[in-house]
Automatic annotation (TrEMBL):
Compositional bias per record (Polar residues), positions renumbered to this chain: 46-57
Signal peptide (from-to): 1-19
Gene3D superfamilies, per the entry: 3.10.50.10, Glycosidases (3.20.20.80)
Keyword Nuclease found: no
BP GO annotations: chitin catabolic process; polysaccharide catabolic process
Signal found in the keyword field: yes
MF terms (GO), sorted A to Z: chitin binding; endochitinase activity
Chain intervals for the UniProt region annotation (Disordered): 30-57
Name of the protein in question: Glycoside hydrolase
Natural source organism: Cristinia sonorae
A Pfam family reported for this protein in Swiss-Prot or TrEMBL: Glyco_hydro_18
Family according to the record: Belongs to the glycosyl hydrolase 18 family.
Length: 461
């Protein structure tokens, strides 16, 4: 017998959940699947419509989502064999990029081709869905053209179907950053992007190959932009064709911000400097007609670093907590110098981008969660190391750590903040979580914290 908490699973799940073919995990008690057990609008495969009839028009295949993106370019350090496959319902390979030609995607060179096949095969051995994501920050340049006309959409749909067939994919994820809104400098943008994207997704869903596969999108904290560049007030038509959107609630603060702030805030309604959070993103998407049970919360297994003077970081009187850590000031200002992140953060020399624009030299400053242990900020259990500064910000529900000798502060996520996000996912009735990136975690500290808080249980049978 399997249990969620202390309740036998049979009492909680609709029978359809037993028929879900690709699941080695059992959903949390408050998931869409569990809710649908008592909801007359549930369809045979566990999909749920919201009250006014929006929601999926197809058969959803996911009762809940515990997913991660796998960054192919980190395979030398983190081969796909290292993924904790048994803890995910799906995993998404990043990235295939857009190209000028809707008949082709980029980045699937011989190395990525072989790696993607290995990734899919491992996923299937583990009863996990394998998806491919198209786009990314620098890979979104040509989405606008690819979906820009009837002819291009038809070709682009055929390209997607070929990818699904060629790699035996269980679905596709569209990481367009962003339709109708500025992203990377090289992106082509049109006021018609979101409308064209929707038409493309509708066409894609109609193909028999994609009818029963996952189609998802990775999105900003705000709903897709309309012709005026502002968030659309009604995105319910997207919910009719997408299984879910994963809200990328990270990079909310970073070196581009005025002060140090949370990378991935859970809440900002209590923060005078609030500029986006899981709470406000879920509100924005549901206010625009996107059902909560089709929202997946994007969570970050990394943090951003800032160079912060010790007087700004620690204040006049630095207080030592019982564990020997120094208490930190909230939202200190930081110096222009971007510190180096963890050992994967390579210095980029000044250069030119793919569309010929100058790019500055420097580090990204990103610390993966494991990198904070590597760098001496945290101990192996993920707790602040002795002598470091530490603050858990109650509003954003995220931690900060500070090394007084190097004067580097990092805003990041730990087990406590991932558990808070897992609880929020259940309370808000979201579909699940998506972690960027699989390789960022350290001994599954983060993954176990969010899954545990959601009440997800593993079944290895
Ligand atoms: C959804 O599932 C039902 C029952 O299995 C099936 O009859 C129907 O054709 C499916 N719809 C689509 C769009 O695949
Ligand atoms: C369609 O794709 C072609 C490239 O094959 C591109 O040149 C053209 O601008 C696209 N059309 C639209 C309307 O985006
Ligand atoms: C947007 O779509 C409308 C209607 O299809 C069309 O008339 C207009 O030219 C398009 N605008 C751009 C910039 O493509
Ligand atoms: C999708 O799956 C349902 C249920 O298994 C099946 O009835 C339907 O024919 C499938 N649709 C397509 C287009 O394969
Ligand atoms: C977010 O903050 C507001 C204002 O303090 C509070 O009412 C709300 O409960 C918080 N939500 C969560 C999920 O923490
Ligand atoms: C119903 O759908 C509209 C968009 O068509 C949306 O604006 C509204 O919030 C939805 N209402 C509910 C109760 O979901």
């Amino acid at each position: 017998m399997l249990y969620i908490g202390h309740i036998p699973i049979l009492l909680l799940l609709p029978l359809s959940a037993w028929a879900a073919p690709m699941c080695s995990l059992r959903p949390p008690p408050s998931s869409a699947a569990a809710a649908s057990a008592s909801t007359p609008t549930s369809n045979p495969t566990g999909g749920v419509s919201n009250n006014n009839g929006s929601g999926p028009t197809f058969n959803r295949t996911d009762d809940f989502v515990a997913t991660t993106w796998y960054a192919g370019w980190h395979a030398q350090y983190f081969p796909p064999e290292k993924l904790s496959w048994e803890k995910y319902t799906s995993a998404t390979y990043a990235f295939a990029t857009t190209t000028e030609d809707p008949g082709a995607v980029g980045n699937l060179d011989a190395e990525n081709d072989a790696l993607l096949r290995r990734f899919v095969s491992l996923a299937h051995q583990n009863n996990v869905k394998a998806l491919l994501t198209i786009g990314g920050w620098t890979g979104s340049a040509f989405f606008s053209l690819n979906v820009g006309s009837d002819a291009n959409r038809t070709t682009f749909v055929q390209t997607m179907v070929k990818l699904v067939n060629e790699y035996q994919l269980d679905g596709l994820d569209f990481d367009w950053e962003y339709p109708g809104k500025a992203g990377d400098d090289c992106n082509i943008i049109s006021p018609n992007d979101s409308a064209n994207f929707l038409t493309f997704l509708q066409q894609l869903r109609k193909t028999p190959e994609l009818a029963n596969r996952t189609i998802s999108a990775a999105t900003s904290v705000l709903p897709f932009a309309g012709p005026d560049g502002n968030p659309m007030s009604d995105v319910s038509e997207f919910a009719a064709v997408l299984d879910h959107v994963a809200i990328m609630n990270y990079d909310v603060w970073g070196s581009w911000s005025k002060t140090v702030g949370p990378n991935a805030p859970l809440n900002d309604s209590c923060d005078p400097n609030g500029q986006g959070s899981a709470v406000s993103a879920v509100k924005a998407w549901t206010d625009a007609g996107f059902p909560a049970n089709q929202l997946v919360l994007g969570v970050a297994a990394y943090g951003h670093s800032f160079q912060v003077d010790s007087s700004a970081a620690l204040g006049a009187s630095s207080v030592k907590a019982a564990d020997g850590t120094l208490t930190l000031q909230a939202n200190p200002s930081f110096a222009a110098t971007q510190p180096k992140g963890d050992s994967w953060d390579a210095f980029s020399p000044a250069g030119v981008s793919s569309c010929g624009k100058p790019t500055p030299a420097g580090f990204s400053g990103v610390f993966n969660f494991w990198g904070l242990t590597e760098g001496g900020f945290l101990d192996v259990a993920g707790n602040p190391a002795a002598g470091m500064g530490y603050r858990f910000d109650e509003c954003s529900q995220t931690p900060y750590v500070y090394n007084p000798s190097t004067q580097v502060m990092v805003s990041f996520d730990n087990a406590q903040s991932f558990a808070a996000k897992g609880q929020f996912i259940n309370e808000a009735g979201l579909l699940g979580f998506a972690m960027w990136e699989a390789a960022g975690d350290s001994n599954d500290i983060l993954l176990d914290a969010i899954s545990g808080a959601m009440g997800i249980e593993q079944s290895r049978s």
